[in-house]
Amino acid sequence: QNNAAVTFTDPGTGIVFNSWGIANGAAQTQGGYTFGMALPSNALSTDATEFIGYLQCAAKDNKGWCGVSLGGPMTNSLLVAAWPNEDNIYTSLRYATGYAMPDPYTGDAKITQVSSTINSTHFTLVFRCQNCLKWNQAGTSGGASTSAGFLVLGWVQAFPSPGNPTCPSQITLEQHDNGMGIWGAVLDSNVANPSYTAWAAKATKTVA
Ligand code: HEM
After folding, report:
1. pLDDT tens, position by position, 106-143
2. How far, in Å, is the centroid of ligand 1 from the Cα of 176?
3. How far is the CA of 93 from the centre of ligand 1 (A)?
4. Between the CA of residue 152 and those of 126, 204, 205, what are the distances in Å?
5. What is the ipTM of this complex?
6. Ligand 1 atom with minimal separation from the 181 CA
7. The CA-based dihedral angle spanning residues 189, 193, 196, 202, taken in that order and rounded to the nearest 10 degrees
8. Separation of CA 199 and ligand 1 centre (Å)
């Protein structure tokens, strides 16, 4: 996994992301994994509370799920899980205090979607995550500071689909079986963009 960000422009939305990934064909995970982030224009000097995320994950014939930990470890971090089902990509915000099925996150974070695409090998989601960079679950708080210019993030990927896939608050998961890890994500100036507000306004779709 790269630490220095790779900047790319998502062709479907025109959104510019800093990204970090594992190549398709690498040993750590089958199918590859990419997470990208775009931030408000002042995020490198003032901590942002939200971001636009990009997740491209492996899903063979619409099966599988992946996620990102916004704090690095699985535990005590806000977790985003995502999976395809038929023509939609569903998400669930989760929080775990141990290495077992994470609970639904009870804070006020919110995901809305800019775009989603699914093909026979991968799914790709561009999503806005509001109130996602500070979290509080039953009094335990944490967060990720964008002004530090450096985030600790975690990735995870799995082959089977969640149970109850069309009901994000009630999914069931097996322990992930297609790799996981923690990486240091260095932000560069391309992550903070004056167009952020316009891009965020495109996140009008809720899949729940
Ligand atoms: C790591 C279990 C769901 C993210 C781990 C580890 C276990 C585990 C045992 C440590 C494995 C090792 O070090 O070899 C589970 C179980 C789950 C579950 C039983 C559900 C039934 C999730 C979800 C996410 C997630 C939903 C995020 C969306 C991670 C990450 C790591 C990890 C990022 C690597 C970082 C770390 O070790 O803390 N998980 N997990 N897990 N898990 Fe999960």
Report:
1. 999 999 999 999 999 999 999 999 999 999 999 999 99
2. 7
3. 14
4. 20, 28, 28
5. 0.97
6. 34
7. -100
8. 31
State the residue for tokens 């500070």.
134
pTM of the model: 0.98
Type of residue numbered 175: Q
